[in-house]
């Protein structure tokens, strides 16, 4: 059975109609005869949504007990047993109640998809994990329930359910989204017009990027090379000259005029390296284009106009921005220039902008671009001069005879000219033609192919030798120039690779993307296997080209080791490019090894931390837990003894000892369990808005009466916290402060509001803690100074800080003026109800044990 298909209805905010659209789609499918069931849909009391559930088969929910309350979640086992064709699962980012099989609902959906069941679900844009910081900056509310972006991106179909902010607020005001008692708070807080507009823009842009990825995949699969102007993409051609900054800014202004405009700056380096650029200037231009929201690309190509147009068509660009040529007038004899060529060959679907700048016609300051070695034009001119030159010279000298020596020098001039222009072969041809003409016209016997005077034979031999020598020197110089230029181009690419590493772009996929882009390939993959007989597996792949499972199936494969290879598809690379490609392949292997070493180091660190915790737990059990157990055991044994008749006072004292020992055990075990939950990351706060005076007084129940004083003003704003975690955190702080306070000195627990924060301060007059130990006291199993064993296992403050951070707060230690220690617990002031709080009924307050 294959994997099921996932369809997601994506919305910008609660109430836009995602669930209604999902149920409408379910009714359409049922009418077509599709086996469709409701696995979990929450209508939130909305009558129109509730009506849409009629006529659809609903799978009974699973009831779970948690903290004294009963909650319902999707019964995934029942859905799997039912095996429908399509299952409706609402609220993809929902966090399941502890006790469910999976922590998140999207994990339940993954199980259904793996079983071959198609799933239709809903999610809001603010629940995407990568947008958490952006959404918090817009709305002031941190989303606690999130779903990984990759889960949503893997969906087979994403449909945007859109609604204007004004229409959504009208729905809210009419009571179609929340209960009437929550409408005013929602409209004045989360559902402000600015918030809704920004969230709507996020949703539209995210879906647009997803559509763009679909379009790229389609164009690649169907080999579409024609540009489709569905979105403004502006390619900026850079030469590394100072005019590049002007071009980038101009392109950015053009992109701003169209919605969703994108700027791609590209520098094309010739494989022969003759068109070089300043690495410093390119680095500045790269930083500029990235600051403006664009991307920088580095491509190798011998034909710059063709490479530029291929890149533009490959990214489906709509416009190309080039600078006016910096060449002087006389330099146009070498060709029309890149800008003119690109404009001529761009076609009707690609606009070319030629932008003027201050460097126009000031000279390029770079060598004139040539082809490989001498170039075709120079070779043709060399043959023309080498063959026709001696003939023309023989015609001119037929009327005037200057002597054999002078004639030979003139013919030698033609040979040297052919060598300088065309290299070795035209010079050899010129020497051959010239020697024949000298023999026939100027050496006795004239007009015969023989030489009578032996001295003339030596002269002609010297003539040929000089011509060949000059041609050899010219050809060797051309070869050395080409080799040097090629090495310079390779060093430029390798320095670019090193720069990426220094900038932190060391991800395997990032490096493979650089390989694919630099060499103009369709896809790049790093393949590996365990042994010679094992199948190849893909460690990383980028690009939209055909996937390859073996190196031999690729257009280019570069062995990295016996069991690792870099495979590329798209075209066959020349042999001279493989040397640089080998450097990329070696770097890819290093990046892969580094990533795996980091993963192993992280696992080792987790194991070491676990061992440390286990060792400390054993120490706690052997010392701190033994004392109260021994006391309880002794008291109980005494009470059960028949040899002694205890008075009522003695019995009361023994019972009090038992109670004290049990309280100490309860406190120690509670802290150990809390620390274990914090270490394993299983603390899931249930955030709600609450007044401090509802929580803090209950935190004082574990200390003797009169040992703590409260100062909580009634004017304090509400805080967004988990009440149970906050109570436990404050209780630990107060108990610790009372433990170290002098007799008769009450601990002060006060609160105050500062900007968007609320501070709870627990002040004691004890011995205090030095500055260098203020952070250490929050570590697990740390007890400051000469605290006796009965003082606990050193977990109270560690648990307090862990719970504080779990609810989005901070906990720090400060000196109390006049002596002592002050614990400062900083909490977030509530900015209004979040969508989750308004959508879901408030759960019972968590009681931490």
TrEMBL record:
Pfam families: DUF4118, HATPase_c, HisKA, KdpD, Usp
Enzyme class (EC, first level): transferase
Domain named Histidine kinase: residues: 620-831
Signal sequence residues: none
Gene Ontology terms for molecular function: kinase activity
Transmembrane parts of this sequence: 380-402, 409-437, 457-478
Entry keywords, A to Z: ATP-binding, Kinase, Membrane, Nucleotide-binding, Phosphoprotein, Transferase, Transmembrane, Transmembrane helix, Two-component regulatory system
Primary localization: membrane
The enzyme's E.C. designation: 2.7.13.3
Membrane topology: Multi-pass membrane protein
Source domain of life: Bacteria
Reactions that this protein is recorded to catalyse: ATP + protein L-histidine = ADP + protein N-phospho-L-histidine
Compartment(s) where it occurs, according to its Swiss-Prot or TrEMBL record: Cell membrane; Membrane
InterPro entries recorded: HATPase_C_sf, HATPase_dom, His_kinase_dom, HisK_dim/P_dom, HisK_dim/P_sf, Histidine_kinase_KdpD, KdpD_sf, KdpD_TM
Name this protein carries in UniProt: histidine kinase
Organism: Streptomyces plumbiresistens
